[in-house]
Amino acid sequence: MREDFENFNDEDEEWLSELEISDTDLENELSDWHAARARDLAETSYGQDGAPRRGRPGMLRAQPKPGPSRQTPPRQVPPRQVPSRPAASRPAQARHYLDEEELDDDFTTPIQVGGWPEAGRHGPGPEDRTQAIIDRGRRSVSRVRRPRSRKIMFGVAAAVAVVTLVSVLVFRSSPSWPASVATVQTQITTACQNANVASEPSQVNFACGKTTSQILWVFALMTSGNNPNFTDSKTGRQGLEPISPTQGGEIAWSLNMHHPYNPMDPVDSLEVAARALNNIIGGATLTGTNGKPTVQQGLEGSPANCAKYTGSSAVVSHAGFPSLCAQPVNTATGQAALVADAYKQWVVGATDAQAYDVGVLFANADNPGNAQVQAILKNLSQAS
To answer: Which H helix or E strand runs over 284?
Structure first.
C-alpha cells in the first residue's frame, strides 16, 4: 500500500487538499468548543474584588491552508510498474484507508475527536499526519492462527488414543491354560530331580526331558484335573497318576524314595508317573520269580512303531536290554504319536479319540489359544 501512496499524481494532490480542509474544519470545531468552555468558566469565576471576570476571547479559528498550486511540479519517484486507476474512483479508495480499524493507533484518536485534545499542545499538523498516513500506509492484517489451547487439546486427545490402543493390545486377555497347570509344572520340576525316574537299564527319560516333560501335566490334566487329592471310587485310583496305589507302591520301591509312597502327595505321585511312563516308552528289565531277568519291551521296541515315531524302522537291541529305535524321536509329529500310544497303555480302556486329544495338548503346550486345545479344555470342564 505504501508504494501506491508514493505514486500519487497531480490529481491525487487535489484529494489531499480536500483532506487537509476537512481536518482544518475539525480543528475549528474543537477551537469553538474550547472557547465556549472558557466563557462558561469565566462567567462563573470572580476576581479578588468580588466582580465577575470576563472570559478570555475565544481561540483563533484555524484557517484552511491553501491547496498546492496546479503548477507545482510533481514529486519525482522511482519508476515502478503501478496499475493506473480511474480518477473518479480515487476518493472512495482513499476513504477506505481512513477506516478507524485500519489506521495506526497514533493517528486514529486525533481524527476521531476532531483534532488534538489540548489547544496549547502542538501536535502534528495536517501535512504531517497526511504524510505519516502516506509513509506508513494501512496496517497489515494479522494472519488468523489456530488457538494454542486447541492445539494442546488435539495433542492430548491423540496421546490418549495411542495409550488406549497400546493398552488394548498389550493387556487384552488371551486364552491360557487352567491355573492348575502352572502349579503342577512347579511340582514336576521337583519330582524330576530324582535320578531314578529313568527306565532301567536303557535310561530312557522321556517324561522328564526338557522339551517333553509336559507329558506329565497333560496326563494329569486329562485323568484327574491336575488335582493331587483326586480319588476314583470305581477303580480306587488316587492322586495324579492313573494307576492303582498298589502298582504305584511297586514302582516307588525302585525309586529309592526316602519315605513311603503317598499317592496323595503330588511330588510322590509325579515321580511314580515319570518312572512308569519311561518304562512304557523305553521298556524295562525286571527280575522274574525264578530269579532270572525278564526283559519287557517298550513302545520303541517295535520296528513298526519306530517307523511311525522316527521315520525309520531301524531298531537297536542288546542282550538283556529292551530294544530301542535307532533314531531319536525328535519331530513334533513323532512325539505326539508316541504320547498318544503311551496314554492308551497307561489308561486302560482309553479310546483313540482321547489319545488323539492328549497328543494335541502335548504338541500345543506353548499354544493354549489353539482352537482344538480350547475345544478339548471346554469338554474337560463340562465333564468334571
So the answer is: strand 284-287
Q: Which tens digits make up the pLDDT trace of 35-53? A: 887 777 766 554 445 555 5
pLDDT at 273: 92
CA-CA-CA-CA dihedral for 238, 240, 243, 245, to nearest 10: -40
- For the stretch 53-90, pLDDT in tens is 544 444 444 445 555 444 545 555 455 554 454 444 44
Q: Are strands 293-296 and 324-325 parallel, antiparallel or unpaired?
A: unpaired
- Least confidently predicted of 117-126, 144-153, 196-205, 363-372: 117-126
Q: For residues 358 and 335, is the Cβ–Cβ distance under 8 A?
A: no
CA distances from 106 to 3, 63, 101 (A): 21, 24, 12
Domains: count for the chain: 2
Residue 157 lies in a domain: no
Nearest to 311 by CA among 303, 320, 319, 322: 303
What's the chain's length in residues?
A: 384
Facing residues of 238 across strands?
231
C-alpha cell at 174: 488371551
In a domain, 45, yes or no: no
Q: By CB neighbour count within 10 A (0-12 exposed, 13-18 middle, 19+ buried), where does 303 fall?
A: middle
Is there a domain that residue 297 lies in?
A: yes
DSSP at 281: H
Question: Would the pLDDT of 331 be above 80?
Answer: yes
Q: Report the chain's terminal Cα–Cα distance, integer Å.
A: 91
Is 15 a member of any domain?
yes
Q: What is the pLDDT of residue 235?
A: 75
Q: Mind giving me the DSSP string for 24-36?
A: HHHHHHHHHHHHH
- DSSP annotation of 198: S
pLDDT band at 341 (very low <50, low <70, confident <90, very high): very high
DSSP three-state, residue 250 = helix
Residue ranges of alpha helices (H) inside 192-265 are: 214-224, 245-254
Range of the domain at 368: 184-383
Run of H or E residues at 107: helix 105-113
